[in-house]
Amino acid sequence: MEFEKYKSCIEACNVCAVYCDSCATACLQEDDVKMMAECIRLDRQCAQICRLAASFMAQGSEYAKDICRICADICKACGDECAKHDAEHCQECAKACHHCASECAAMAA
Amino acid sequence: MEFEKYKSCIEACNVCAVYCDSCATACLQEDDVKMMAECIRLDRQCAQICRLAASFMAQGSEYAKDICRICADICKACGDECAKHDAEHCQECAKACHHCASECAAMAA
Amino acid sequence: MEFEKYKSCIEACNVCAVYCDSCATACLQEDDVKMMAECIRLDRQCAQICRLAASFMAQGSEYAKDICRICADICKACGDECAKHDAEHCQECAKACHHCASECAAMAA
Amino acid sequence: MEFEKYKSCIEACNVCAVYCDSCATACLQEDDVKMMAECIRLDRQCAQICRLAASFMAQGSEYAKDICRICADICKACGDECAKHDAEHCQECAKACHHCASECAAMAA
């Protein structure tokens, strides 16, 4: 299939979207939701751009690099925020975000 | 993470979305595009509902089953249409669709 | 255009998605975020299903009714939750959700 | 509501997404689908980025400008392609795309 060349980046985007969606839900169930507000805010955007990036790569779009460049920025910001929190869902999400940021940056280069 | 229980269904949805997006692009490059029109039409819808289903499961949504029920129907229809065409992208997409249809049907049950 | 027959429902979905996305952000900036957690949780899902419903109607999909049926349920739940909160963003979002619920229910009938 | 300042751009994005989704379906029903292949290909991407742009503006995202910049490019390309075809759905879609391109360019400036 045409998308094979983007496979590792597509996979990183899909995994990151799942972790972000899941992390946002878990953050909303924390005792101190206010402390997680920035995390929730970025998780939403990160999940959305990751899914778009995966779709554009799968379509072989000439705009996939442009999307991946922004996706790398958002993943970095989201991962940095998640990394500040000790909850397991945040720590695992941070890893998925940082991995996706690096895949997307390489793709956009 | 919370989403572990849906892991195989989420993964099937993500993979199916990628195959459908990619198959639609490949269909548009075929010599006889008209013959692929129904395939392209269903690929678009299938990729969209698969991404929504993955997101709702990752969020632990109480509506995930409802979405998976429709997703199973669309994946079945899309897989059946793809299976009619000999092109490799259609045959592989058909497999991804039928696998996802069965994962989503099990999830919705 | 083909989508004219769904015009009022598509418009209601688009408007509802915008109010839900905006309401979630505003909720995250409230002093008592914990009180808004359920609202944020439903806003996310509501915005997503509304955008999918609008897209499926615009595509003239045979699955548009199925999606609108679920969309009506989610809009109703989200509107009911928003209506409990006095903040202007919640009150306006509740109106957009309840209007969209009624448009989608009519469409699905 | 917070999103009032982006209102005309959000509306242009929502309208453009609907026209693109609808145009793609209509293109797939044309006698000469092959002639419409590039139009269908761009319609898909344009509808997707428009919906993301609308959502990011509604959320008040700090990345909304970045998304609108790409959205302007894709809308321009899609509108230029649609404008080449005489079918009413293409001509109307071209107008919606070009209007959205100009709104997004202004937003990103």
The third-level CATH topology of chain A is Substrate Binding Domain Of Dnak, Chain:A, Domain 2
Gross morphology of chain A is elongated
DSSP summary, beta strand count of chain A: 0
How much helix, percentage-wise, in residues of chain A? over 70%
Amino- and carboxy-terminal Cα gap of chain A: 23 Å
Instruction: Characterize the largest beta sheet of chain A: strand count, sense, and whether it forms a barrel.
Output: none
CATH architecture of chain A: Up-down Bundle
Tell me what the structure shows.
Four copies of one chain form a homotetramer. Chain A is an all-alpha fold. The first copy, chain A, has one domain: Substrate Binding Domain Of Dnak, Chain:A, Domain 2 (Up-down Bundle), CATH 1.20.1270.360. Helices cover 78% and strands 0% of the residues of chain A. Chain A has four helices and no strands. The mean pLDDT of chain A is 97. Chains A and C meet through helix 1 and helix 2 of A and helix 1 and helix 2 of C.
Task: Explain briefly what this protein structure is.
The structure is a homotetramer of 109-residue chains. Chain A contains four helices and no strands.
Protein topology:
The structure is a homotetramer of 109-residue chains.
Chain A: H1 7-28, H2 37-58, H3 64-83, H4 88-108
Helix pairs in contact in A: 1-2, 1-4, 2-3, 3-4
Q: Could you name the key traits of this structure?
A:
78% helix; Substrate Binding Domain Of Dnak, Chain:A, Domain 2; 0% strand; homotetramer; YHJQ-like (chains A, B, C, D); 109 residues; Four-helix bundle copper-binding protein (chains A, B, C, D)
